[in-house]
Amino acid sequence: MKHYTKGENSWMLYDWANSAYSIIITTAVFPIFYKAAATNAGISAADSTAYLGYTIAIATFILAMLSPILGTIADYQGLKKKFFIFFFAIGVLATTLLAFVPSENWLLLLVCYTFSAVGFWGANVFYDAFIVDVTTEGRMNRVSARGYGLGYIGSTIPFIVSIAIIILAQNEMIRVSATRASQLAFLITAIWWGLFTIPMLKNIHQRYYIEREPKLVISSFRRLGQTFKDIRKYRALFLFLLAYFFYIDGVGTIISMSTAYGTDLGISSTSLLLILFVTQLVAAPCAIIYGKFAEKFTGKKMIYVGIFVYIIVCIYAFFLKTTLDFWILAMLVGTSQGGIQALSRSYFAKLVPKEKSNEFFGFYNIFGKFAAIMGPLLLGVTAQITGHSSYGVFSLVILFIIGIIILAFVPEPKVDEVVNKPA
């Protein structure tokens, strides 16, 4: 990463650090572990999937309520990193606790998962906002996409170790139970996340800020109210957020519910873990490719590409029958999940006033999180009503269609020509 500054590298490395949580806790090992615990407790497959969806909805609702206020306060000098550290610490601690929850206590598993998710996504609000402090507008697509690429590559290392331990335990090749092997995966995640966050903690500092005022909380509420009054001034920004609200809903729901859905289809846990691992390998270069194509074709056009891919994913998911079908579906997701997230982040960063980056990334988060409430709830309710998870996945198509229509009215940000050397 010699073509990037120390700040850019440290910022991107946090994607490397926290992506272990994304794959092991959000997507792979924890959902399978939870589904097994719920099944052993006599809960049906459709109900346990619904309960997981409701839990995700609760966690995202909590964070969505906090993000705009905390983001507005964090725009004051010296506070952005403090809020980042606070949520990061909660996330790592709660992830560690998952390793010590008795496997038969599925409800306590969901409680700890809620806290870990709040910490994970809360830290991401301030991490995303730091992009304006570490790079220039012309380099944002590249840096953001490379961050996601590094995240996918880095997450495969703890994932491989975790899969190896689980598979060896399942085949009784090591003196560790399958339950304990999964719990060790949670502990590995927490250690990995904490260790590779150190460069972020040491080298990233808030460059753009608002000078502190007396009564910060009251002043922050006033600033937040003023932003709503000036909403016409930020028309393009809020129009993008509205589009983002719909299409990222589908993206997040598919990512967080994919293994639960695969389990409902009868796909073995070993096959699911292998599929998710290969998906990470596909996603890493594809995220970087999205960043490069964005420099040539613009970020907005590449977001369109990502949305179209996800529409195909939702339609294809409705007809899934075999493990091979799930493989194909996972590879399609892998081609675009990192790219659409990375370019959405950098696209939004170009629209926001730098000194108000936390406030506006708070809105970015609340739109994303409220969307994440709607998606899992829609999938969960539809699964329970119909008795088939596939109907819930198919219903997400409408969200992508609405998102792409609104995005068409958002102007492309005007930025300087891309600089090939670090600023």
UniProtKB/TrEMBL annotation:
It comes from the Bacteria. One of its GO terms (cellular component) is plasma membrane. GO terms for molecular function: transmembrane transporter activity. Keywords: Membrane, Transmembrane, Transmembrane helix, Transport. The gene is yxiO. It is found in: Cell membrane. It is a multi-pass membrane protein. This is Efflux transporter. Residues 236-423 form the Major facilitator superfamily (MFS) profile domain. It comes from Lederbergia lenta. InterPro entries: Atg22-like (IPR024671), ATG22/LtaA_families (IPR050495), MFS_dom (IPR020846), MFS_trans_sf (IPR036259). The chain crosses the membrane at residues 12-34, 54-76, 83-101, 107-127, 148-169, 181-201, 236-261, 267-290, 302-320, 360-379, 391-410.
